[in-house]
Write a structure and sequence with these properties.
Layout (H helix, E strand, L loop, with lengths): L10 E6 L3 H13 L9 E6 L3 E6 L7 H15 L16
């Protein structure tokens, strides 16, 4: 989405008012770690009667789920699709 005033591209996350407390915590955490280059920053929060809207920086690489699926597929291809199973829990004597 682009801001009308500036033409700047932003991402918008729509949150139901019932989930607004969790969204506010998310926005505060994002502000706290905003200096980290790996974290998308929340720029603004807008409220309507039924929803909250968090405006944030755009991450053009896709969503996190897609990234994780691509990494998993790449790892599977690198190992020929064969992964060794876990040997189980460590013995309690260690």
């Amino acid at each position: 989405m682009r801001r009308v005033e500036s033409g700047e591209e932003v991402a918008v996350k729509k949150v139901a008012r019932a989930q607004l407390a969790a969204a506010a915590n998310e926005a505060m955490m994002a502000a706290w770690v905003s200096a980290c280059p790996s974290v998308v920053g929340v720029r603004e929060v807008h409220l309507s009667e039924q929803h909250g809207y968090l405006l944030s920086d755009v991450c053009s690489g896709g969503d996190l789920r897609g990234l994780l699926e691509r990494r998993k597929a790449a790892a599977s291809n690198a190992t020929g699709g064969v992964c060794s199973p876990s040997p189980g829990p460590l013995p309690s004597s260690l």
